[in-house]
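This part of the workshop introduces the protein records we will be handling. An example says more than a description, so a record of this kind follows:
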Amino acid sequence: MSISSERFVEAALAASDDCIKVIGLDGSLQYMSEGGKRVMEVDDFEVIKGCPWPDFWQDQGNIDARAAVDAALQGRTVRFTGFANTLKGSRRFWDVKVSPILAEDGSVESILSVSRDITTVKNFEDEQILLRGELSHRMKNLLALVQSIARQTLRDDAEMAVAKPAFLARLAALGRAHDILIQPNQTATTLEAVAKTVVEDQLMGRIFIDGPLITLSPKSGLAIALAFHELTTNAIKYGALSNQHGTVSITWEVANSDEERLSLQWVERGGPIVKQPEKKGFGSRMIERALEAYVRGEVRVDYLPTGVTFSLNAPLRFLAEG
């Protein structure tokens, strides 16, 4: 090969972001391209020259690298992926092709390894796996809530003409709550965002919301949103929102005892005189039973003459858990 040809090859290898190496028959590192030194953050190749090449690989990658060397010694080309840190400690994930370099007589005289940094691709794949798991988890919770709503609504309302609107309204509330949980890169929501899903245009100025930032998991967010929907529906039909001047306040604070706890209050004022219902419908049962299970807290609904009050007291750590 002429000097100009050698320079061209060196320039081409230096321009490539692939880490190109020559490995001895004993598995030791003998050569690394200039581009390889760059991506592997090698300032002085002499420091690592002669080191066992498989030792650069971690965990399963180390096993695969040793197997790749053995395969190349037998004249076979193999490929594997694995983690190997750069010389400065940066964690990288590589796609590696290992091939035999043959002498004129056909024997293996050395081994060629070409490694490509695919860390970005690996991170994207890992993120997609996490997102699929999160989506599956959310959908299971969502379907469980829908099944509960369907069973309770159809059991409470004997006539389909009554049951259908109630069922659709509850699904709509669930949908509004779910909308705030599917924003890009969002795996949680806030109590304020959930509370605001119940404030429709015609209720502006009559529902007052105030409290510090509280993070909710998707499961807790959906359950609390449904509770707010039931309370709002009852307030519109029978309570403070059934006339022109009644109001609802939704307030919360963080109470410190042995652990941080959410203390939330729903208070109706200015509506007609409230009477204790003769029996509990689905909304009341969901609020007092199901919601307790979801947030692992204490729930109470009181039918005071001055208006319905709802209180929730729950550990913050459970509200934020999936």
Notes: Residues 3-117 form a domain with the Beta-Lactamase fold (CATH 3.30.450.20). The radius of gyration is 32 Å.
